[in-house]
Amino acid sequence: MPEFFNVLPPQEALALLLDLLPERPATGAGVVETVDALGRVVAAEIPATESLPAFPRSTMDGYSVRAADTYGASDGLPAWFTLVGEVPMGCAPDVSLEVGEAVVAYTGGMLAGNADAVVMVEHTQAIDAHTIEVMRPVAPGENVAQPGEDVGADEMVLPAGHVIRPQDVGALLALGIEQIKVSARPRVGILSMGDEVVHPGATPGPGQVRDINTYTVAGQVAAAGGTAVPLGLVGDDYEEQLVAARQGLAQSDMLVLSAGSSVSARDRTVDIVAELGEPGPLVHGLALRPGKPAIVGLCDGKPVIGLPGNPVSAMVVSSLLLRPTVYRLMGCVHPPPPVERAAILAQDIPSAAGREDYVPVRLVGGRNGMVKAHPVWGKSGFIFTLVRADGLVRVPADAGGIYAGESVQVREL
Amino acid sequence: MPEFFNVLPPQEALALLLDLLPERPATGAGVVETVDALGRVVAAEIPATESLPAFPRSTMDGYSVRAADTYGASDGLPAWFTLVGEVPMGCAPDVSLEVGEAVVAYTGGMLAGNADAVVMVEHTQAIDAHTIEVMRPVAPGENVAQPGEDVGADEMVLPAGHVIRPQDVGALLALGIEQIKVSARPRVGILSMGDEVVHPGATPGPGQVRDINTYTVAGQVAAAGGTAVPLGLVGDDYEEQLVAARQGLAQSDMLVLSAGSSVSARDRTVDIVAELGEPGPLVHGLALRPGKPAIVGLCDGKPVIGLPGNPVSAMVVSSLLLRPTVYRLMGCVHPPPPVERAAILAQDIPSAAGREDYVPVRLVGGRNGMVKAHPVWGKSGFIFTLVRADGLVRVPADAGGIYAGESVQVREL
Hints:
Molybdopterin biosynthesis moeA protein, domain 3; 4 domains; alpha/beta; homodimer; 6-stranded mixed beta sheet; 413 residues
């Protein structure tokens, strides 16, 4: 039986691939409505088109004044002001201040003409309908947001490669930017291989199992912002696999081949990757458990990942390799890191040094108390170990395991 | 000017609301394709309909044997076996074992008739085309996954209230469950109020600003699995606000009123919440910064949240209150916790005791090195403080601040 050569740590394998991909989006770009842009990747730097705030804006409810008129004011010796109006929300002032005059100001509203500061209402006292006492001095600009202080018209709003969050949508719309250019979603073809695999809608005969990997990987592709392109099933015939993989790659920006990546006689995925384009396989075998029999390749500019058929291994490898690759295809060099939660390990996890282990754990514990991570043991490839788990604990390659009681980060798939 | 009464910690305010909501989905349920169910909430417990594996399955590449025939085998004294065939993937065996016979077995494949264990290929040596040496004994069941060992036909696959992840999709399809019943997405009406607020497509006049909160909140609603229903803009006229809020609530499962929740004269949102239904406002004012002037209410069974108009406060309150409420409306009592990342605080954060502070921070640091959280300072309500930030650091109510160098969790909005 052939051996794995050049077994690499997953991060090194990933780096080998990403270093060969362009930093710019490989998949083109398109214009979308800003309100529909959540999770999309900015294709080209977006400049601010105007300043925010657009006008000097009160940050408090109170009175706009000339700061000089408040100097020396104190509880014992308040300054008296004559109220000469208000500036309603959404309106320009229709009044300008003379010495000793004040105008009602609302949070977010404009100041009176000549005003350069706002006195908080809490530092004033109404004497009658037209007079207030001010108990504290304000400096010029106090309680006022200046034009451009939030963002300047010459500033960058969002860099290329940025993944749009709710606050980014808000900021873009605050500037009136209703459409933006985003990277196209990479099309990720997924081909599931193996004589034993049948469609989920079929009733498996003896020795047959339903296809899972197409759909778990599709979920991970979608979560990373790509478009999954299920390519169907193909048996273990090499020529049929090659034809299906070629056709799949032609219509995709990236290809995932599920199963057939181990080293047994029937598994010739690495040969397929070699035939699909140059340079072909970059890595065959990861220092990883589960997920050792994985393939990382690049075929004429398109990433090709070979996943173990084992559904647990497939999800772990996909989580480590596919997600950052999908982001990179959109021009996102620093994708959002995977979701992790801190916990205390509840049981020892033994591990062999020299490879990274990912162990499914279930989180138990109160919201305020410390969360404990209980390993979910199960035979290799049981999808329900992942269903019963809340995430994975990584045992680093240089550790012989992790002891109960240690702090761990639990990573979502 | 009126005062805030009963200022509550955000978690207590949320609990007051959630305790009044039913644990079952409040919004009905519908059937979706399992492949489209990512992020949806299971409406009713899903039982397994069959066992997995469906047949005794080899977990290794090797040979299926009768375990008894391997007893005593060792490197020095291997057991000899006659190879009498193979069980191809996806096939039932067409051969049954006699004493001293072995059959080629593949990972995931069936065993020969009479076989009760699998010898790993690594523990064998081929002598000729029909003979192998076995160097280690196997126990009955070794390297074999038994029927029902992954999941039994009588087990629960997923409980009601569970949020569907990629591995859940895989597990359901492995059982041939192609459709499931999920809670309907709650419709969350969002009404933005204030004379100064204009549509993002408009050019603001003096003193006017574009509506942000409708869209930032809509993003948060969508992220939690709800359907945002933008209800448009209404000025500061109380009667118009009341009419718009009534109409909005009638067509929604939950209502968000943006702005008008402070205590200045023009802010009468709490009165609106009182008029919308019973019991009306539950909480007016949170021990929270930013976000103190928030309202939590329940009107004839529908949650109503009043958000501060300040876009930063609105997002913080929405993140704390709206997200878990949306999940609860789908019958999800334990929603996925917010995404948090561990970091080391780079600068002191001062804070007043007695309220929770959420301070925007930017994360800086290597993937392997320790990530540092740098506070992003800025005047209240600057949306770009959130754009420049990667998340929020929470300063607990009982702390007077956090010192540089301390470990913090940085929460995404």
